[in-house]
Amino acid sequence: MVRSAVTICLVPEAAAGPFVFYGDCAAACETAARLGFDAVEIFAPDAAAVRALNLPKLLGDNGLALAALGTGAGFLQRQLTFTSHSRSVWTEAVDFVRAMIDVAAEFQSAVIVGSMQGRWTPEVPRDRAIGQLWEALFVLGDHAPPLNVKLFYEPLNRYETNLFTTLGDAATFVAKGFPHPCIELLADLFHMNIEERDIAAALRDAESFAADWRGVPLVGHVHFADSNRRAAGLGHTDFTPIAAALREMNYDGYVSAEVLPWPDAERAAEQTMKAFRVHFPRPVS
User: Fold this and answer.
1) Pick the catalytic residue: 184, 195, 196, 258?
2) Which of 41, 92, 154, 248 is catalytic?
3) In this predicted model, what pLDDT tens digit does every residue of 39-75 receive, in sequence order?
4) 168 lies in some domain
5) Does residue 250 lie in a domain region?
6) Which of 11, 137, 161, 249 could form a disulfide with 73, with the two C-beta atoms 3.0–4.6 Å apart?
7) Is the Cα dihedral 261, 266, 270, 273 positive or negative?
């Protein structure tokens, strides 16, 4: 069953970013529960900040799960990437994500690697950059399975990375490169709107490719966002074929609203839930 999630940002540098709720995690959880969301996805400064939230009580009181933890604060606040020319920075980046995995384990949740993947540069050519990304994901992929944590690698659009920008290229990298079934892909529909010719076909093709190479699902998380990074239904993306593709793939993860809080947080969340109920209706019991 596809489940719904909504984003909460606790990182000051990302206050203007595509996150529905910002700052007050308790209030955000209360609103998310009232609107009918199944889970929250949290973008926090670091693992210590997550632990300081007293999430077990906060989630339990509101009947919510933790869909995933974002790690982009490592890049925004500390300029950590897996493609840095500095080995010490690479090590710090791996340690940052490893600590997030340890926290996610307490909730049998997942951790996202997006902006921390970095990019290739004249100083770090493409082959070396991809090698460093592979090494980081391999190390983290060894750490995650005993803790029952999934690691979601997110291909970004061309303006945010120059490594893997399409789901197909990312699928080839992950399915061929890693024995770890805990490493899955995050399909962000906003990024895909920029890079893919046909979003639904890209989803099907990636899953088919993964089935041939490793026999287990590859797409583990979806960011549910419209073409303009607003809530689903406020842009020009046609979600009907996308939802159909996810059903055909037997996708049972989260579709999580990583969207701008437009015109405000509550109305963005309400619009997301409205679109979720249209495209992923629950059976009537």
Assistant:
1) 258
2) 154
3) 999 999 999 999 999 999 999 999 999 999 999 999 9
4) yes
5) yes
6) 11
7) positive
Residue 284 domain-assigned (yes or no):
no
Q: Please report the pLDDT score of residue 135 as a whole number.
A: 98
pLDDT of residue 282: 85
- 285 lies in some domain: no
What's the CATH number where 34 sits?
Answer: 3.20.20.150
| Both structure tokens of 56 | 């077990």
Q: What is the pLDDT of residue 233?
A: 98
Tens digit of each residue's pLDDT (9 = 90 or more) over 231-248: 999 999 999 999 999 999
Is 160 tagged catalytic? Answer: no
Structural domains of the chain, count: 1
| Containing structural domain, residue 246 | 3-279
